[in-house]
Write a structure and sequence with these properties.
alpha+beta; Glutathione S-transferase Yfyf (Class Pi), Chain A, domain 2; 2 domains; 4 strands; globular
Length: 206
Amino acid sequence: MNDQIELYGANTGNSLRAAIALEESGIAYTARRLDLYAKEHHGPAFLALNPAGKVPTLIDHGTTPALIINQSNAIIQYADAKAPGRLAPAQPGPERIRVIDRYFFFVTDVIAPSHAAFFLHQAGQDKAAAIIDLRVIEQLTYAESFLTDEFMAGAQFSMADISAFTIVTAFRDRLEWKELAQLSRWFDTVEARPAVQRGLNVFKQT
């Protein structure tokens, strides 16, 4: 544990992406679990850090003033910058560009629409949400074509795998796994990684 870097979160996809990124990067941090049911993320202490009242939030006390990051994807970028080479090739070039390209595919074409569908479900717009969910599933099925090597963007585990893994986990019961041999192999490989397991469990209630 490291009190210099704190990660506030809960057992949500956004929080887990951030935690996995820190774990895979080898960055020491202290996890601060928030009870969303108890509305701890709406308390004044947390709202002072993240006025939107959402998780995750990372605080790096090693800077003056302290660095506060409120977006999971920005936390992944922070981890990549702090530990070059762990989440993407450190040197500029085609291999790094491919990682960034695949990373943003999952962030913009899969995760963002799934969030929109979630809010539509909450608003009682189930038919509209179902259309978006179907699009998400189509995009995840398309990602099978990325897996010409071990991971989503080549031979190296990367931020592309982190962004893909949590959203595939959320839709795992709705995918046609028998038709997705490479995606199935990839998912099992990523899930078995020790750092991924640590990230998945860091916010679970004990």
